[in-house]
From TrEMBL:
Keywords: Membrane, Transmembrane, Transmembrane helix. The chain crosses the membrane at residues 22-39, 46-65, 95-121. This is Uncharacterized protein. The lineage of its organism: Bacteria, Candidatus Methylomirabilota, Candidatus Methylomirabilia, Candidatus Methylomirabilales, Candidatus Methylomirabilaceae. Gene3D superfamilies: 3.10.450.50. InterPro entries: SEC_C_motif (IPR004027). It comes from Candidatus Methylomirabilis limnetica.
Length: 153
C-alpha cells in the first residue's frame, strides 16, 4: 500500500498584517466606555483623539515612503542607491518603520486615550457646579484658578 502525502494549505494572517485594522475601534470602545463622562465630553474627546490618530497614521505613511525610497534597487545595470542614502538615515528609518508597523498603531490609540484621561481627570463637567461655587472663588477642581476662568465657563 502506497502512502500519498497531501499538501495542506493553511491560510493565516500574521498579527502584523492585521495590526492596522483596530486602532480606531479600540479608541472608540475605550472612549465611549469610560464611566463618569457625559456623552458630549465623550464625543469631544473622541473627535480630538481621532484627529490625533489620523496624524499618527499620516506620520506612519511618511516614514513608510521615506523608508521605501532609501532601499537600494536592483536594475539591469546593477544596484542603484538613492542619492540621499546614508547608513545612519537607513538605520533610523528602519527602526521608525518597525516601530510604527509592528507596535505603533495600537500603542498610539492607547496613548491618546490615556492622554485624554489625564487632561480631563478630576475636572467636573462644565455647568455641573452652577449655584454651588461663586464665580470669583477658587475652582473646586484644585487648579487654584477662579471658577469663572476654569471649570465654570
Amino acid at each position: 500500500m502506497r502512502q500519498t502525502s497531501e499538501t495542506v494549505t493553511v491560510s493565516r494572517l500574521l498579527l502584523r498584517d492585521t495590526s492596522g485594522d483596530y486602532p480606531l475601534a479600540l479608541l472608540a470602545a475605550l472612549v465611549f466606555a469610560t464611566p463618569a463622562w457625559s456623552l458630549t465630553r465623550r464625543g469631544r474627546v473622541f473627535a480630538v483623539t481621532v484627529g490625533l490618530l489620523i496624524l499618527t497614521q499620516f506620520l506612519s505613511l511618511l516614514v513608510n515612503i521615506e523608508y521605501t525610497k532609501l532601499w537600494p534597487q536592483k536594475t539591469a545595470a546593477g544596484i542603484v542607491v538613492s542619492l540621499d542614502y546614508s547608513k545612519a538615515k537607513m538605520i533610523l528609518f528602519d527602526w521608525l518603520y518597525a516601530f510604527l508597523e509592528f507596535m505603533g498603531r495600537g500603542f498610539f490609540a492607547l496613548l491618546l486615550y490615556f492622554g485624554a484621561i489625564a487632561l480631563v481627570w478630576g475636572r467636573p463637567e462644565p455647568g455641573s457646579m452652577k449655584g454651588s461655587v461663586g464665580r470669583n472663588e477658587p475652582c473646586p477642581c484644585g487648579s487654584g484658578i477662579k471658577t469663572k476662568r476654569c471649570c465654570g465657563r
